[in-house]
């Protein structure tokens, strides 16, 4: 195999070596427990209850959404474990060695938004705990922003230490967060005497039609929640010891962790209604409401570890690789992480968390319409056209099998644009609102089917569709 084109490769984008493949089944279970047990997961089911669901409907919606997104997750994970390549390199097969930058940057921009959201949550957690432990400092001008920037800097330090530090962080964080979630559940239950009326309150929907009108966009939002990782999961599975390790670890870790923690969120929110007369869906505000310094300090540590885990794992690894893919000779994983951090600040995350509607039906559903089409094209190309066979050498060369037309596959770009346009059409035209409610699904199937049709109707001259 010839040396890689330096304009398409660097140490971070090159295939992993056998010595780098250190992740076993527990590593992936830990990955998902670490990333699932955090505040935005906690708020998912609580916000569904605010929309009128009972607790069973809310937990069921979250579980179903995660089972659905697990399918493209495992399918896209296969290439990472088989070839040791990250997402921005894998996506070169359908889009071309230059065209891959388009879906990679779409994924990166969404991750930057999430990075900002999680950094804001971590900062507000520090500020809320500070208000209990040291009120005079918390009340000073700029204290909240100082806490926000402090947590942001902590994320940057972990990024600078590299990917292996992430594995160590999550190996410790997963069991710690499981214990802390159980402790929170028991502690609030003891304080309240019961989990309150919310667990016995019936659904607010008086007809099947009324329920489905909320259920389907909510399901899309649940899929959208991990639609980001469904694309860039090769960034993690490239370090797997085997296909079996990553597949079993993810199949257990994702749905189990999400379901358990959303139930914790609902139960604790229900107990808060008994304690304070109204439900408090934000655990940061709930813990602060008790005004107990020891509890506040322990909770601060738990929240910071949880938020740091998910922010680094879900929102830094992928965009760091994606930005590196733009200009490998100048942008390393570390530099890409710094770019992610600064863009996350620029996206004003406090506005994205302003209300449950802005969070779920705006942010989550909206960007799912951008990422669903990319997932559809990736899976259609890798499984239906190439039968899982990639020419890895050509992924790192401009004149190889994935060069297409000047490095861009116009068929993939056309399928992506049309899929996104259809998925988001409901935002511009009210009669097509139902398409937006199913944005991820509409984009996924539209782009996937269109891509296969275009590749069959207008086959590229040197596409290596059946490359060995």
Number of domains: 1
Helix fraction bin? over 70%
Number of helices: 23
- Major sheet attributes: none
Give the strand tally: 0
CATH architecture: Orthogonal Bundle
Gyration radius from CA atoms, angstroms: 22 Å
CATH topology: Hydantoin permease
Kindly report how far apart the N and C termini lie: 14 Å
Which structural class fits the helix and strand makeup? mainly alpha
CATH class: Mainly Alpha
Q: What's the helix-strand series? A: HHHHHHHHHHHHHHHHHHHHHHH
Q: What amount of the residues lies in strands? A: under 5%
Categorize the overall geometry: globular
Mean pLDDT figure: 83
Low-confidence stretches: none
CATH level-four homologous superfamily name = Hydantoin permease
Describe the structure in your own words.
The model has no long low-confidence stretch (mean pLDDT 83). The protein starts with 24 loop residues before the first helix and ends in an 11-residue tail after the last helix. The chain is built from 23 helices and no strands. It is mainly alpha-helical. The protein is globular and about 70 Å long. α2 (39-50) crosses α13 and α3 packs parallel to α19. It has one domain (18-457): Hydantoin permease (Orthogonal Bundle), CATH 1.10.4160.
């Amino acid at each position: 195999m010839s040396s890689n084109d330096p304009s398409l490769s660097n140490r971070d984008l090159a295939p992993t070596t056998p010595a780098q493949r250190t992740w076993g089944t527990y590593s992936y279970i830990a990955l998902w427990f670490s990333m699932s047990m955090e505040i935005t997961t906690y708020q998912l089911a609580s916000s569904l209850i605010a929309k009128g669901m009972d607790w069973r409907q809310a937990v069921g919606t979250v579980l179903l959404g995660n089972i659905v997104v697990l399918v493209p997750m495992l399918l896209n994970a296969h290439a990472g474990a088989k070839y040791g390549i990250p997402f921005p390199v894998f996506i070169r097969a359908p889009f071309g060695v230059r065209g891959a930058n388009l879906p990679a940057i779409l994924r990166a921009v969404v991750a930057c938004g999430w990075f900002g959201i999680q950094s804001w949550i971590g900062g507000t957690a520090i500020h809320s705990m500070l208000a209990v432990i040291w009120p005079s400092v918390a009340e000073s001008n700029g204290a909240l922003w100082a806490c926000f920037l402090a947590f942001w800097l902590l994320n940057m330090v972990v990024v600078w230490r590299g990917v292996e530090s992430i594995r160590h962080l999550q190996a410790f964080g997963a069991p710690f967060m499981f214990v802390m979630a159980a402790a929170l559940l028991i502690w609030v239950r003891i304080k309240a005497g019961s989990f309150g009326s919310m667990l016995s309150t019936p659904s607010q929907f008086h007809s099947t039609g009324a329920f489905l009108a909320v259920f389907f966009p909510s399901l899309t939002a649940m899929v959208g929640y991990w639609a980001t990782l469904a694309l860039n999961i090769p960034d993690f599975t490239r370090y797997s010891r085997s296909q079996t390790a990553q597949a079993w670890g993810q199949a257990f870790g994702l749905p189990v962790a999400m379901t358990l923690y959303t139930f914790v969120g609902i139960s604790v929110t229900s107990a808060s209604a008994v304690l304070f007369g109204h439900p408090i869906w934000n655990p940061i505000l709930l813990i602060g409401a008790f005004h107990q310094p020891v509890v506040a300090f322990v909770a601060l540590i738990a929240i910071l570890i949880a938020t740091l885990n998910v922010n680094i794992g879900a929102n830094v690894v992928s965009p760091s690789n994606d930005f590196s893919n733009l200009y490998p000779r100048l942008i390393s994983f570390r530099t890409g992480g710094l770019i992610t951090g600064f863009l996350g600040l620029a996206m004003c995350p406090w506005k994205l968390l302003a209300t449950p509607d802005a969070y779920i039906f705006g942010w989550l559903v909206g960007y799912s319409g951008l990422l669903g089409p990319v997932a559809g094209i990736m899976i259609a190309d890798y499984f239906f056209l190439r039968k899982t066979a990639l020419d890895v050498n050509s992924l790192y060369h401009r004149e190889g099998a994935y060069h297409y037309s000047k490095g861009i596959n116009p068929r993939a770009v056309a399928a992506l644009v049309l899929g996104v346009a259809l998925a988001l059409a409901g935002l511009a035209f009210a009669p097509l609102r139902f398409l937006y409610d199913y944005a991820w699904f509409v984009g996924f199937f539209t782009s996937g089917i269109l891509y296969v049709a275009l590749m069959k109707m207008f086959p590229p001259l040197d596409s290596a569709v059946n490359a060995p």
